[in-house]
Amino acid sequence: MIIVGVGAGPGMLTQEAMKAISEACTIYGSERAIEIARQHIRPECSIHIIEDYKKLRELPERAVVLSTGDPMLSGLGYLDGQIIPGISSMQVACARLRISQLRMVPVTLHGRAIVYDSLARIASEIRAGRCVFLLTDDSTNLPLICRHLEAEGLSKDVAVLTELGYPEERIELARTNSPPAAPGLSCVVIGDISKIDL
Predict the structure, then answer these.
(1) What is the edge-to-edge ordering of all strands in the sheet holding 131-136?
(2) Residue 75: what are its φ and ψ, rounded to 5°?
(3) Quick check: 126 and 119 in contact, CB under 8 A?
(4) pLDDT for 70-115, tens place per residue?
(5) Which one of 14, 82, 103, 171 has the fewest beta carbons within 10 angstroms of its own beta carbon?
(6) How far apart are CA 187 and CA 195, in angstroms?
(7) Domain coordinates in residue numbering, the chain
(8) Among 144, 181, 141, which residue's Cα sits nearest to residue 161?
């Protein structure tokens, strides 16, 4: 199996990813991942939308599995097989906000409940001078996270990035005392973000 990162949005496929996709006979992926890669998929290739992620380990050995963003950032990198990296949403967010990835600590909240351990970790990383990169979804309670940080005396910048790489890409910058909304699948950066023209 080959797990191919297709990047965070259109136009972010690497040459290695394009080659693997163009040579594939069977491809599995989400609708979004398939759409990003579509122009590189051969007409005779068998395309399958992933319905049950628990069955991915049962796929044929020669299958190519598309992972949105980079497989090793909350992606499909846990599967056995060759990994072809992609441009992650964290890389794009760092570029847009002009923040070094060395200052960034990723925490995924996508599909996960916020527990005290998550809040404590976020606060600890920010207290140490780092920025926290959060992958969120509709169930993520960003105001709760921000209230916790404020209560800890950690009033910081909050950037919400949506639709990275798409024409409708949007970046909103606020503070933890009044955070912006983080709709759907969003990337949220909390910390000392340099004042830039967004």
Answers:
(1) 104-108, 131-136, 186-191, 157-162, 170-175
(2) -115, -150
(3) no
(4) 999 988 999 999 999 999 999 999 999 999 999 999 987 765 566 6
(5) 82
(6) 18
(7) 2-87, 90-191
(8) 181
